[in-house]
Design goal:
α3 packs parallel to α4. By secondary structure, this protein is an alpha/beta fold. It has a 5-stranded parallel sheet, with helices on one face. The radius of gyration is 15 Å and the shape is globular. It contains 6 helices and 5 strands. The two termini are 13 Å apart. α4 links the parallel β4 and β5. The protein has a single domain, classed as TIM Barrel (Alpha-Beta Barrel).
Length: 157
């Protein structure tokens, strides 16, 4: 497994004047961040406009940045959702593109129990060879991933 590095920057997603994703500027920004000392970039998470992007746009952003970055740094793709099936699909696409890890948000809206959270993340972790980074943001998801659940999840190979 590749070391992800110590400084991973959550990258914004640039848009053009018409409100469309500016894919070329996205690549330039990723390279600029790596050239400025970041060890890697985190793409299409909340800082990168995940709530407003189509999955196709997310895939295109990740693929474009991967092609531009090469081995210059780590690329982490946000593949989270409150739908386990959608997370599985997005994570498989990210893995095929060649990202170094995936970022998974705590499922939101339906307020799962700790066991529900465990099952969600376990299913995803067992479906991929990618390292999974847990994204716990209770102020947005209204659910807090407990330390006990994280410890239990850390036992998954």
């Amino acid at each position: 497994m590749k070391k992800l590095g110590r400084l991973l920057t959550a990258m914004v997603t640039p848009f053009d004047e018409e409100g469309k994703v500016d894919y070329e500027q996205t690549k330039r920004l990723a390279l600029a961040l790596l050239n400025s000392g970041s060890d890697g970039v985190v793409l299409v998470a909340t800082t990168g406009e995940s709530p407003t992007l189509l999955r196709e746009e997310e895939v295109n952003i990740v693929a474009g940045v991967m092609s531009a970055v090469g081995d210059r740094g780590s690329v982490i793709a946000y593949t989270g959702s409150n739908s386990t099936a959608e997370v599985l699909e997005a994570t498989k696409k990210a893995e095929r593109i060649g990202v170094d890890a995936c970022l998974l948000v705590v499922p939101y809206y339906n307020k799962p129990t700790q066991d529900g959270l465990y099952q969600h993340f376990k299913i995803v972790a067992e479906s991929t060879s990618l390292p999974c980074i847990l994204y716990n943001v209770p102020s947005r998801t209204v659910v807090n991933l407990s330390a006990d659940t994280v410890i239990k999840l850390s036992q998954i190979d």
